[in-house]
């Protein structure tokens, strides 16, 4: 048993963080005791990462107080949090591949003698740390030669190399094998026995019940429950995560005649080892794709569109088998794809609205390779009006627009391309309520006009609000499909978590 | 995510200011430099000196116009200086001792070699995802070696007379070779601002993934840019021979850096997506005027080189500052 004391090491009260109108954290309380493993759980976007960022000094909270070790904790930069003894192991690895394990471990404080790196001391201390996390590699191994799981362990060792009173782990086991996970847990227990507190973020319910002492459930940026893990069942936990306000408004969903198959994907594998995925979309259908981040939703859509090459599988468009090896093929066969990251993969920020809108249908505003600026501007005006884009005009640079208007510009690009099937990935993430409603309306009207729409979203109410049926991804495969009459948030979440739980969830 | 922010100051003034900063900054600098030399450099403003400047900047203008395409898609071409030598010796050999009839074939040959080398530069860069900096550095050696191998390190002298007389001809007071450079700049401007290809060049330089995901083959676009750059080198090789009447395998050393300097002074971003032919043209003029004016003022060769280097650094620093300011203003308006 860990030595748990009653005094809290970390005390967070009323923590609030807003991003341009979106409240990511809404008066969250969290108390972590020395020597305990405290689970932080919640849906995608519930606020877990934001909380960690505030704690680690990466983001500045807009309200609330944090007390760490009895003193006010107000980190202005990541270095402040580190100095206080808060170490975070992020999901993304931050190692320098060409350097050795030892060099990576001590990058921030290389042991020095006479101004030179003291390699002997570095190696000795590296060996101790590696032993602590149960990683059996030489400290001189270049990090690039390690497997992903081993790199993860190096990250953890790195966190332990400094003064560590609170260790925050953001989904550390996502890439670990069960044996490595077991090693990690043993080491975590050893740490807590020494009085270190751990905040542990994970989607794996099974792990949570195995390692957690207490947990805090976040929902929509609010803390909805704190208590000992042992007092809950997995089913109760899922219910707590889902039970979120479904008060957002959605446009009325009309009964639409469903037509022929527009798209049929059979046994698609995104990588050679991935499970096969099959799905279909008919004309006039809005099909939702739910699942946790990393469950294979986006990867599957990218493979269908030709953004990445799938390892196996067949794609039929309107009943005819097609070969899609490049987005160009997909567009030619009538498939559009609105990417989840509109800045990195969608917008050309330094070009004007008009140029962004014509990008996928540039043939329509040109002849013999010559651009018609007049036709392009006119088309952009029409689309801006249709989508209610708020801007000074078609020549305004996209960079200057708000998130919602930027998203409308990318959507307009695909409306101009006028394809039969539109795949949208996180169509309303990070945009205001008004624009969100308009985008939902637009997607529904596309289906009304006989097109097919595939909506990937982490926003469950959104999927429940506008889809005809929902496919639920879990750990790379489609764990189930739910039709509109049977829509139920809890059911979707149970399916979404099912792949991460060996025995399923029993109530 | 920034929502449309409240305009600080008058939006129209902001837009004008940001446009001046964005496009005209280099022009203002050029005019200021011209006024300075008119005042302090003897004979700077004479018709003959203006013609001299035009002749002097012709080669760099042609090379820089081609380089603009490459830099716009986020690439760089270091092989320009060697490649011009290779094009020149091969085309020069084809014309050696020949009459006017041998010229068209030689021009075609020079263009083909330039474009082929550009294709290799672009294709290797794209196919194996290696930095064009390294690929074209390799090409720099390959082309130089090939030029020397081709002639046995000898220089070719007996070029057709009609070619060399073109090199000294004037068209309505303007050197004919400079007219060629201007014509190429005009065509490049048209291609970049009025064609689908030009649009895709800018878009690819800005956000390649977005362009690819909109259904365009960005790799092809980039390779074509390298080929255009190579073809411009081919033209420059002919112009070189026309002006100097020789083709030597050691000519052109350091030309790539002058071309890159002109493009960068012209406001292009080395990460791609930003820049213009007009800027490049002004950049080449600025470098030429600077060299010429300092020469007339009696500044020594070494000091000129120092000043030129300093101007490049100042231009890039001003540009970085200007970019930040104009982004802020355009967001504000």
TrEMBL record, chain A:
This protein's UniProt keywords: ATP-binding, Cell membrane, Membrane, Nucleotide-binding, Repeat, Sugar transport, Translocase, Transport
All copies of domain ABC transporter, residue ranges: 10-245, 258-500
Entry annotated with the keyword Nucleotidyltransferase: no
Superkingdom of origin: Bacteria
Keyword Electron transport: no
GO molecular function per UniProt: ATP binding
Cross-referenced InterPro entries: AAA+_ATPase, ABC_carbohydrate_import_ATPase, ABC_transporter-like_ATP-bd, ABC_transporter-like_CS, P-loop_NTPase
CDD domains: ABC_Carb_Monos_I, ABC_Carb_Monos_II
Protein name: Sugar ABC transporter ATP-binding protein
Organism encoding this protein: Nonomuraea antimicrobica
Lineage: Bacteria, Bacillati, Actinomycetota, Actinomycetes, Streptosporangiales
From TrEMBL, chain B:
Annotated membrane topology: Multi-pass membrane protein
Protein's UniProt keywords contain Acyltransferase: no
Transmembrane segments: 20-41, 62-91, 103-123, 130-147, 167-192, 220-242, 254-270, 277-296, 302-321
Lineage: Bacteria, Bacillati, Actinomycetota, Actinomycetes, Streptosporangiales
Keywords from the named record: Cell membrane, Membrane, Transmembrane, Transmembrane helix
Any matching Pfam family: BPD_transp_2
Major localization class: membrane
Protein name: ABC transporter permease
Compartmental location: Cell membrane
Superkingdom, natural source: Bacteria
